[in-house]
Amino acid sequence: MVERNDVVEHTGRKLLMTRVFAARRPLVFDAWTKPEHVAKWWGPRGFSLPSCEMDLRPGGAFRFVMRGPDGVDRPFEGVYAEVERPERIVFGGTIHDGVHVNTTVTFEDRGAETLVTVAQTFSAESDATRGSAEGWAQTLDRLGEALAAAR
Amino acid sequence: MNMGADQLTATFAALADPTRRAILARLASGEANVTELAAPFDMSQPAISKHLKVLERAGLISRSREAQSRPCRLEGRRLKEAAAWMERYRRAWEESFDRLDEYLEEMKKKEVRRGRKK
Questions:
Q1: A105 in contact with B at a CB cutoff of 8 Å?
Q2: Looking at residue B77, what is its pLDDT?
Q3: Which of B59, B84, B85 has its CA nearest to residue B72?
Q4: Are B96 and A13 in contact (CB under 8 A)?
Q5: Neighbouring C-alpha atoms within 13 Å toward the C-beta of A43
Q6: What's the ipTM?
Q7: What is the pLDDT of residue A147?
Q8: Across the interface, do B21 and A19 touch by the CB < 8 Å criterion?
Q9: Which chain A positions have a beta carbon within 8 Å of B89's beta carbon?
Q10: Whether B99 and A40 lie within 8 Å, measured CB to CB
């Protein structure tokens, strides 16, 4: 049985998602880090991954090309910051519309299952802005609440 | 996802600074002028004015031209657009997760088959 409980936090420019997958951690980590596996599931339904290059080590580059049902190719490329098998990968990349996104994926051992957490921060600038990420969540949380109340 | 990529970039760029986020949070509770906005910061009014210009150019705030104090107010539309973009992005992830769920089942079956051969 697959336990489906995505927890979504979605404030300002930060996104946090979790899901429990019904497979052991090494297998789930492989699914995320080996191109032949990644190509099988990466992207929304109807999308394919005609190109998937992964130099999986800190400082190594990756380049994905995601093809939409409209036939348009959307590249996603960047660099791995951290790779700790089988528990964690961190990468920074630019998505097709120019937005920079820093992503941390963690894999938590739950016996026969694995809890995967994806945390993403969006910015228009490069990794240089990473240092300023502190504290923004708090202020934007308040802002988000105020906006929700205003709706 | 081709909703005003430049606008989105401007929005995220404007949000990438802690002072500007604090200003937006302050404005979420009501209009304020430069003097009021500068008060909690260890910053000169010209420095705050620069931040306000960035926010104004990104469409995140507007400034009254009438009153001399030119009070600033929050413009929620840009933030909502950014939120809507992220919502689409989140849904894309959810579908990826669904596909991964299914693919892991295949991987497990292959693993079992390989295990039997040994």
A1: no
A2: 85
A3: B59
A4: no
A5: 23
A6: 0.70
A7: 41
A8: no
A9: 15
A10: yes
**β partners of residue A107:** A116
Copy the structure tokens of residue B93.
């992830």
The string of pLDDT tens digits covering residues B75-88 is: 888 888 877 777 77
Report the predicted TM-score, pTM, of the whole model to 2 decimal places.
0.67
Task: Work out the angle between the directed axes of helices A136-150 and B76-117 (0-180°, nearest 10).
Answer: 120
- Residue A99 identity (one-letter amino acid): V
Separation CA A33–CA A42 (nearest Å): 11
Structure tokens, A127: 């990794």
Chain B residues lying within 8 Å of A140, measured CB to CB: 15, 21, 24-25
Across the interface, whether the CB atoms of A139 and B25 are under 8 A apart is answered yes
Tell me whether residues A123 and B13 touch, CB distance under 8 A.
yes
**What would the pLDDT profile of A10-69 be if each residue is shown by its tens digit?**
555 677 888 889 899 999 999 999 999 999 999 888 889 999 999 999 999 999 998 988
